[in-house]
Amino acid sequence: MIPYRDTIPLRYTPWVTWGLILVNFLVFAYSEWLPLEAHNYFNYLHGLVPARYTFPEWAGKAGFPAGDYTPFVTSIFMHGSWLHIVTNMWMLWIFGDNVEDRMGGVRFLAFYLLCGLVAGGLHVHFNPQSLVPTLGASGALAGVMGAYFFLFPYARIVIWVLFLPLFVRVPAIAFLGVWVIIQFYKITTPAAAGDHIADVAWWGHLGGFSAGMLLYRLFLLPERDEPEDSPFTRWERRAE
After folding, report:
1. Are 143 and 112 in contact (CB under 8 A)?
2. Exposed/middle/buried for 196, CB within 10 Å: 0-12, 13-18, 19+?
3. What pLDDT is stored for residue 229 in this prediction?
4. For the chain, how far is it from start to end, CA to CA, in angstroms?
5. Is 29 exposed, middle or buried (0-12, 13-18, 19+ CB in 10 A)?
6. Residues in CB range of 130: below 8 A, 6 or more apart
7. 7 CB contacts (<8 Å, ≥6 apart)?
């Protein structure tokens, strides 16, 4: 099952969410256009390679620029495959616009990047020896989902049952709760078996989600809070 859309109406045009989606696709198109060797170099140089920061001596010998921390940001806009980017951008399309609606564009962008930075930092911390470049907006997106979890817990997420003409509505708190459980499962099961899990930033996902839950209030615009008689507030009460 995959999320198809949510049911919360928008009050403002989500320019930043649309812009982030566009930039991600442009970066991906550029990387895919490169010859294979240049493509791999691009991913290693601008992707987040944990060992680059935990083993600086190795990083210097491997040719990484010393003191360059830009991959913590640039990796947020890079993806490894069409499925990867389409999945992430679809989720950003569903959850990002409503969170931006409450934060405003500038604050939303700052929040998005901060959650991505926290996710990248946790990924490096828990996978210090990994030589795999981490790519993707998943950590920043997870932060958006963490904010959505508290801002719109009773919104309805329309789920498409794959291969069937069937759409069901579930509360956002249930959909996102299951998502968090899956991340914990992906971390604990391979860890218990002693397997390597650094190829996917599961810790980064949880770190971004936690950052979103803890920090979202700092980015809300007070003037966008809804009065009790607002049609949006009444809609949320009906959704409950």
Report:
1. yes
2. exposed
3. 42
4. 23
5. exposed
6. 49, 50, 51, 198
7. 155, 156, 157, 158, 169, 239
Class of residue 195 by CB neighbours under 10 A (exposed 0-12, middle 13-18, buried 19+): exposed
DSSP code string of 149-191: HHHSTTPEEEEEETTTTEEEEEEHHHHHHHHHHHHHHHHHHHH
Locate 77 and state its tokens. Answer: 């806009």
Find tokens 């990796």 and name the residue: 75
Residues of the chain predicted below pLDDT 70? 1, 162-164, 190-199, 226-240
* Listed residue (72, 66, 83, 70) closest to 28, CA to CA: 83
pLDDT at 170: 86
Which tokens belong to 48? 């987040």
The owner of tokens 């320019």 is 15
* Pairwise CA distance, residues 53 & 125, whole Å: 10
Q: Hey, what are 140's tokens? A: 């920043």
Query: Cα separation of 18 and 52, whole Å?
Result: 32
**How far is the C-alpha of 51 from the C-alpha of 70, rounded, in Å?**
15
| Amino acid sitting at position 238 | R
Burial level of 92, CB count in 10 A (0-12/13-18/19+)? buried
